[in-house]
Automatic annotation (TrEMBL):
Biological source species: Rhodococcus oryzae
A GO term, aspect molecular function: hydrolase activity
Pfam families noted in UniProt: Abhydrolase_1 (PF00561)
SUPFAM superfamilies the UniProt entry points to: alpha/beta-Hydrolases
Keywords: Hydrolase
Domain AB hydrolase-1: 26-126
InterPro entries: AB_hydrolase_1, AB_hydrolase_fold, Epox_hydrolase-like
Keyword presence, Hydrolase: yes
PANTHER family named in the record: EPOXIDE HYDROLASE
Protein name per Swiss-Prot or TrEMBL: Alpha/beta hydrolase
Length: 322
């Protein structure tokens, strides 16, 4: 079946690294926090074997891609510009985009920001939701007045950067376990914000290997984040006020390209988004053609249940072709 090839190209003022495998219609896979191109390793193999050209970048701030220091470098014109620039460099007019976590936030916006470059979306974990009535940081601060909220903890430059960077292996093990289907991440809310860092509120994980992550795979993440630190990844959260403002006139625009949505049944994002996030998403996404909720999976559904995710993706892609 082969292995992905790796390239780094000059795009939108940064050096952007990506893994690529296969030939055919292009599919671009956009990871979230704390992810890498490697988070899509199972999809690279399966989709390329089925006849697709699969491209998985290290997003801006991650892995072997440049990590600008300024928060303003992670706003929506820049992050959209990375993906459009990548298509341009590769000679691709339109692609199917998949997003997970903040990658889904970005790709939900793509049909409004770059309508001529998106043929369809495969969205993981994060349903499309209505625009917040206040700046995200205001909402984050309110949450932090009630309980520990990582989105608020991430806002102050240097604080989370130091804690996570000084404890890379411990943090990654804790966050991967806590967000998976094997744990209940929202137990973090039992802790107050004051006096706690992220490692203080996350549960102790069991020893590796797990059913979905072995020692070698985990070590790849540790090695990459030990080299880069976490500031680039955290800057995506610090740019959310800017993204919110930049989307003011675009957010209500319906997503009309074909969309499939995939999530783990135990993903805490679904629990945080209210009683029926799918009904809300349906109103905002008239292009939604299918929804897959995968049992016994949490937030990292594409790694926890790759066979089920690959099947859902290939079913959707096959329907597009016909």
């Amino acid at each position: 079946m082969g292995q992905p090839t790796h390239r780094t190209v000059a795009v939108n003022g940064i050096d952007l690294h990506f893994a690529e495998q296969g030939e055919g219609e292009p599919v671009v896979l956009c990871h979230g926090f704390p992810g890498l191109w490697f988070s899509w390793r199972h999809q690279l193999a399966a989709l390329s074997a089925a006849g697709y050209r699969v491209i998985a970048p290290d997003m801006r701030g991650y892995g072997r891609t440049s990590a600008p220091a300024q928060v303003s470098e992670y706003d929506r014109p820049q992050t959209v510009g990375d993906l459009v620039g990548l298509l341009d460099v590769l000679g691709i007019e339109r692609a199917v985009f998949a997003g997970h976590d903040f990658g889904a936030h970005l790709t939900w916006d793509l049909p409004a920001w770059a309508p001529d470059r998106v043929s369809a979306l495969m969205q993981l974990s994060v349903p499309r939701a209505p625009r917040l009535p206040v700046q995200p940081s205001v909402g984050f601060k309110y949450l932090a007045s009630k309980h520990f909220a990582h989105v608020h903890y991430f806002q102050e430059p240097g604080v989370a950067d130091r804690e996570l960077g000084d404890n890379t292996r411990a943090f990654l093990a804790k966050i991967f376990h806590a967000l998976s289907g094997a744990n209940r991440y929202l137990d973090c809310w039992e802790f107050p914000s004051d006096g706690n860092g992220y490692l203080d509120v996350l549960p102790e994980p069991p020893a590796l290997p797990w059913s979905w992550l072995d020692e070698g795979e985990f070590d790849y993440y540790v090695t990459e984040f030990e080299q880069t630190g976490f500031t680039g990844g955290l800057n995506w959260y610090r740019a959310e006020d800017a993204v919110w403002a930049q989307n003011e006139s675009l957010h209500a625009k319906p997503v009309e390209v074909p969309v499939t949505f995939i999530a783990g049944a135990k993903d805490p994002v679904l629990e945080m988004m209210g009683s029926d996030p799918f009904a809300t998403m349906g109103r905002l996404v008239p292009g939604l053609v299918s929804t897959h909720v995968i049992p016994d999976a949490g937030h990292f559904v594409q790694m926890e249940k790759p066979a089920e995710v690959n099947s859902a993706m290939l079913e959707f892609l096959g329907a597009l072709a016909t």
